[in-house]
Automatic annotation (TrEMBL):
InterPro entries registered for this protein in UniProt: C-C_Bond_Lyase-like, Citrate_lyase_beta/mcl1/mcl2, Pyrv/PenolPyrv_kinase-like_dom, Pyrv_kinase-like_dom_sf
Organism field: Cellulomonas gilvus (strain ATCC 13127 / NRRL B-14078) (Cellvibrio gilvus)
Pfam families: C-C_Bond_Lyase
Protein name (database record): ATP/GTP-binding protein
Keyword Magnesium: yes
BP GO annotations: oxaloacetate metabolic process
Cofactor (UniProt): Mg(2+)
Binding site for Mg(2+): D200
Alphabetized UniProt keyword annotations: Magnesium, Metal-binding
MF annotations from Gene Ontology: catalytic activity; magnesium ion binding
């Protein structure tokens, strides 16, 4: 798997000082989970699911996708949807192409049913998203995952989804998260990343954020995200990659607040029309939320529309300045403080080391931009494709 394969060689040379690398699908969890980028959800009821997955991989740089059998499918259609997912994934496996595919199941038993149904094409499936994950419900999912992988002789990753009421209710959150931490530690070799479900968390209180707001403006949910990172996203060897929640808007409507995209960078790049398009398509809110995801320790994002994918990936490219700082920090011979190569900040070798290591993993997956290339350049290339 490799990001930005759809770009011409000239475009890659123009944008990247270090181009995105080919990431082995059997890479370690930290590398592979970072490379997932924007993970596109699709309902399992789609009649042309295999075609859609191939097309999105080519047109939109979709590298990872989740075929959903849970909230995206009405209760009465679950069995039909599962049969369709199996048939479509067998088709995808026969073609030998497409993104990394995961299935979001409802019941632990579906894990074995789906893998057995895929038969000789089981290798097309990378793993499962485990819904409403708690210490109480999650053990059965992880046991089914490990048992199926061993029985069927295939590698399967699990991505537990933190979205249950126990996680948002203040009196149960700490105990619930610590229980999940203990459970995931027992199954560490099977866990690729921890996903976060903002929609269900909002639903527990009957709220929904507007397109003028990010999830970090919804304090009830923001508190859950920060608690998840605090407990499950540590860099001391006990944590996992924690992914950003879904952005659910993909078209414009009347707005109450001014857009938060500054005009100056777009004017400097003669890209005023791009700014207008981003605002019209509600992508300015997505941009801000991804920036806040990164600032708060989340990596990658769940998305529900193809237009979101190139935006998330543009924001995942490592800037020249970030890369220079990371290099300075990692090759430091002491634990002291030194001015950055850019001369605009202090780099501290010890507290910044985990950040620098993460930057280098992201640089492998998404590349390093040239010094003169900014976000507007990357967005221009992404949105114009």
């Amino acid at each position: 798997m490799r990001h930005y394969q759809g770009l011409s060689a000239d475009a890659r040379r123009r944008l990247f000082q270090q181009e995105p690398e080919e990431i082995d699908v059997d890479a370690d969890a930290a590398t592979l989970s970072t490379a997932l980028g924007a993970t596109l959800y699709m309902p399992a009821t789609r009649p042309h699911l295999a075609d859609d997955l191939v097309r999105r991989a080519v047109q939109d740089d979709v590298v990872s996708a989740v075929v959903c059998l849970e909230d995206a499918v009405p209760d009465e259609l679950v069995e039909q949807a599962q049969e369709n997912a199996i048939a479509q994934l067998r088709d995808l496996g026969a073609r030998g192409g497409g993104p990394l595919v995961f299935v979001r199941v409802r019941r632990p038993e579906q894990i074995g049913e789906i893998v057995r149904g895929l038969g000789e094409h089981r290798g097309v499936l990378r793993g499962f998203v485990l819904p409403k994950f708690t210490a109480r419900t999650g053990a059965a999912f992880l046991d089914a995952l490990d048992d199926t992988a061993q029985t069927e002789g295939t590698r399967l990753w699990g991505m537990p989804l933190i979205e249950s009421p126990e996680m948002i209710h203040r009196e149960t959150r700490d105990e619930a998260l610590l229980g999940v931490q203990r459970l995931l530690d027992k199954h560490r070799s099977s866990v690729l990343a921890v996903r976060t479900g903002a929609t269900d968390l909002c639903g527990a209180y009957g709220i929904r954020r507007g397109r003028d707001l990010t999830i970090y403006d919804v304090r009830l949910v923001a508190d859950v995200l920060m608690a998840v990172v605090n407990v499950l996203g540590r860099t001391d060897g006990s944590g996992f990659t924690v992914t950003g929640p879904v952005w659910e808007y993909f078209t414009g409507e009347e707005r109450l607040f001014k857009p938060r995209l500054r005009e100056a960078p777009f004017q400097e790049h003669d890209a005023v029309a791009l700014r207008a398009e981003l605002i019209t398509r509600a992508l300015d809110g997505l941009i801000r939320e991804v920036v806040l995801d990164k600032a708060n320790g989340l990596t990658g994002k769940t998305v529900i529309h193809p237009s979101h994918v190139p935006v998330v990936h543009a924001l995942s490219v490592v800037t020249h300045e970030e890369h220079a700082d990371a290099q300075d920090i990692l090759r430091g011979t002491s634990s002291g403080v030194a001015a950055s190569s850019y001369g605009n900040k202090m780099n501290e070798a010890r507290p910044h080391r985990a950040w620098a290591e993460r930057i280098m993993v992201r640089a492998r997956a998404f590349g390093v931009a040239r010094e003169e290339i900014g976000l507007v350049d990357l967005l221009t290339e992404a949105v114009s494709r």
